[in-house]
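Final report, results section. Input specification for complex C-07:
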Amino acid sequence: MMKYLTAIASAALVSIGISAPAKADLKDILDAGTVRIGVPSDVPPFGFLDENNEQIGLDVEVAKMIAEGLGVELELTTVTSANRISYLATNRIDLTIAAMGATPQRALQIDFSSPYSALSIGLFGPEDSGLESLSDLGDQSIGVARGTTQDIELTERMPDANIQRYDDDATAASAYLSGQVELFATANIIANDLSKRDPDNALAPIEIFRYSPTHVGVPKGNPELLRWVDTFVFYNLNNGRLSDLTEEWLGQRLPESFPSM
Amino acid sequence: MNYDFRFSSLLAYRDELVEGVLLTLQLSAATIVIGLVIGVVVAAMRTGAPGPFKAIATVYVETIRNTPLLVQLFIIFFGLPSLGLRFTANEAALLGLSVNLGAYSAEIIRAGIESVRKSQIEAGHALGMNGYQVFRYVILFQALKSIYPALTSQFILLMLMSSIVSTIGANELFHQASFIDSRTFRSFEVYSAITLIYLCLTLVFRSVFLGIYWSVFVRRPAR
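Structure output:
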């Protein structure tokens, strides 16, 4: 399908024979043969440097898939949370894939694709906890960082649960790892990080409270590029590849009914 | 400055505050009793016991007094479970604070013991007292009397320092205040309220200590 799309786009370019408007819309990227994508380098597990100083992570993988889908070379640029929107708005990059959530304020400056992945927060515990959901919860002690979204969600859903609150996620994780609490309410990436460090005591989700979808950022005024990225996301959600990637990097698959824009 | 004070938002959490005050009181009272006992025993070991006991007491006092309380608490709460010793947050808080207070009060009491004049001890022996009786009736009484103000200051400091055990999740006053703050975001109100509560607690402690001093050391003459 990607090849087909590419072929049509190339054919269109050749037959019409015009190029280089101000913005890098789909045909300009295809024409240049390079897609410039901004990814983070200090936001594990989305984009970070491995021991060989190579950029890796979920967002880097998605960037590679996009370049492959477009049939062009990939040019990675490091972005930070402070400049990832302005780089797009000033046309220094064609796309931003940087664990970015969509907000109405941000959408005034850039466009957002349908979400390609999601962070989640929820209740985690040992794989043999025997708990299927919050309703199975008895008097097990639960560690959580005080005042976080997971603390608020957990307290609202289970006001009578045995909740132990700590100053931050690191202290709550220590309490879980040292056995001071039996369960741990946190973000999926933290649970996944702990599981990777100690695979024998991996954490499994008991209940997910909330998802925070992440979106590809597209410069304004590029309707074809936005439409293509949405199609790319739709296709790869449907065939499970984005869910595989999410499981690999964030520890869990995406939910069956994943929202789209 | 245009801050809109809303102390009424704390009213919904008064149960938590009361619970916090009670736990701070219980924790402080229990720690003072245990810490005082540890202090007396360790001070006696450092002043009059044979070499090995003296060495143990010295290592204990120097280790505890030269390391942060927070580290001691983390070792008890997060470290000891690796050795199979598991305490709840409140137990770990009581243990950590008692061990800490024990070391500090031991040094204060030792200073008191060393301030007792040698002639007093010799007089005790001359009256036919044995070593224990001399320590109990001659040395300890005078020692505690002379260092009483310093010792009670340490106790009050302990009560105020107990706020640190909130980091390991003990539900004392400061922990409850942080909880209320995380729910209401009325930081100024929450923390000024507990400032007032701590101040009241300190005044109560001071009055109690003064009463004890009066009834033990002043009203009754030294035996």
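Chain B has nine helices and no strands. The mean pLDDT of chain B is 91. This concludes the modelling results for the funded period.
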